[in-house]
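Fill in residues.
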């Protein structure tokens, strides 16, 4: 909460009256920007955030060299009437949040303060942090700093640790207690002040995105993968309160070493509410997200929104492109076209799509046998 920072780097010595400010320039000790030229700056100010580097600076003419920041809104509490460092806690006059004035929470620099403020583990109990320390970080997955391969220090087992800032905690809690077949099991979760930390099962394999980097996927295999994804979605969509995945795409589907298909990433998933006419937040990935999912439909996102994404996925696996660029050829296009209908009511359910895909597979097998 409290920050001790560098003093203003001034030509005038401490104690020189502010009225003589026309005779000198002041510089930020961090980035050496000229403070005197920054809009709104005045040498009589007690505190100033440098517009060059964003660092909090303390005027050397004030008695305290500690800035006390509100943990809720970031206001400088030193400037609030009646504030004292001697009080054990202070109610911020800007936002009403009660802050503890704890000398153990003093940071030597703004960088230290910001690092702690952004820490994914901020606010966790000592017990939770001790549990998390058992998971030793190995590497980032897909270059994402919030998706990390970890190794349990005692068992040697591999897991995935995710640091989520967008999530529905109740969905992860449900999946931890009620695992869905062919989705990574949620092992543990911890909610900090900044994010949800999720430990989940590690699935070894290749994403469809990675497979596509090596070349297109045959229609037969693409239809099979799509059917397996639909089986997972059918389970999610037929819960007593359906879960809508909202982010079906190549990077969220993984094929393990035994050719089993898994659906990943539930961070933008939502519970289906039939009474809602629109989504509170528009979420999803461009081109895979259905019109209603991004605010252009006549209703909120639903199970049919996931089917739209599945149709896009099937076309991309076969052609490497979205339908507006290139349509899959033959009977499979008729199935894709219905999946991506602008009217959600015209799309298949997951169960209906499974049946249509089976017909395509049977027809393909019959054609191959005839040849």
């Amino acid at each position: 909460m409290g920050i001790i920072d560098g003093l203003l780097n001034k030509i005038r010595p401490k104690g020189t009256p502010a009225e003589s400010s026309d005779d000198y320039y002041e510089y930020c000790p961090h980035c050496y920007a000229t403070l005197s030229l920054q809009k709104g700056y005045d040498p009589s100010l007690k505190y100033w955030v440098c517009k060059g580097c964003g660092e909090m600076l303390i005027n050397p003419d004030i008695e305290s060299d500690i800035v006390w920041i509100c943990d809720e809104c970031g206001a400088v509490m030193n400037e609030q009437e009646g504030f004292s460092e001697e009080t054990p806690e202070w109610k911020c006059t800007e936002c009403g949040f009660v802050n503890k004035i704890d000398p153990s929470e003093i940071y030597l620099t703004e960088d230290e303060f910001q690092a702690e403020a952004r820490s994914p583990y901020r606010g966790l109990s000592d017990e939770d942090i001790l549990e998390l320390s058992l998971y030793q970080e190995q590497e980032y997955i897909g270059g994402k700093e919030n998706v990390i391969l970890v190794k349990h220090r005692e068992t040697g087992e591999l897991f995935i640790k995710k640091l989520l800032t967008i999530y529905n905690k109740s969905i992860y809690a449900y999946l931890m207690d009620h695992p869905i077949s062919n989705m990574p099991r949620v092992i543990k979760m911890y909610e900090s002040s900044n994010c949800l930390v999720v430990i989940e099962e590690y699935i070894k394999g290749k994403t469809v995105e990675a497979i596509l980097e090596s070349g297109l996927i045959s229609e037969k295999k693409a239809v099979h993968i799509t059917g397996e994804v639909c089986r997972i979605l059918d389970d999610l969509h037929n819960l007593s309160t359906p879960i809508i995945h909202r982010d079906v795409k190549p990077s969220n589907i993984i094929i393990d070493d035994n050719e089993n298909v898994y659906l990943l990433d539930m961070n933008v998933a939502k519970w289906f509410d039939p009474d809602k006419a629109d989504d509170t937040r528009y979420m999803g990935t461009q081109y895979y997200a259905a019109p209603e999912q991004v605010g252009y439909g006549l209703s909120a996102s639903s199970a049919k929104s996931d089917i739209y994404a599945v149709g896009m996925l099937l076309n991309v696996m076969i052609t490497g492109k979205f339908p507006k660029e290139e349509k899959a050829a033959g009977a499979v296009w008729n199935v894709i076209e219905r999946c991506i209908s602008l009217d959600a009511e015209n799309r298949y359910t997951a169960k209906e799509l499974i049946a249509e895909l089976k017909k395509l597979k049977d027809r393909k097998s019959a054609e191959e046998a005839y040849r």
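The chain has eight helices and 19 strands.
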